[in-house]
Task: structure prediction
Amino acid sequence: MDKHVVLTKEGLATLQAEYDDLIHVKRPDAVLRLSNARELGDLSENSEYSGAKESLAFMDGRITELEEILHGAKVITTHSKAHVDVGSKVTLHLKGKEIQFHIVGEWEADPTAKKISHSSPLGKALMGKKVGEKIEVEAPAGKILYKVVRID
Result:
């Protein structure tokens, strides 16, 4: 990987837990499944063997990906409450409502949980903003105007 992956402490912990689970639980199970499938006989017509082999290859790919991410991660442990940064929980005012977003690294973004990447359109627009500032973000439905209400 040619650039650092930005993660919050929570994001690092989540990826580390996934890595540990793959290494210590899921991969050994997949190896056992492959070994058992191999014993079933003719490998050319053995769908269990093919499935187990494919599953193990996918898992190994994810393990390699996680190793690269974890090795090159830049963990954000503190953030300013004076302006929006990775790790900030920012409350925005939008059309009479308040919405809170957690600004996170790309690998931990989850819009359904209101975790947005610092490199997303809204995340980019928010970076460095202070309480009281307004931002305008281009969306498929048109421009949306937000106001920063609080930074935690």
Notes: The beta strands are 5-8, 73-76, 89-94, 97-104, 115-117, 134-139, 142-151. The domain at 5-76 is CATH 1.10.287.180 (Helix Hairpins).
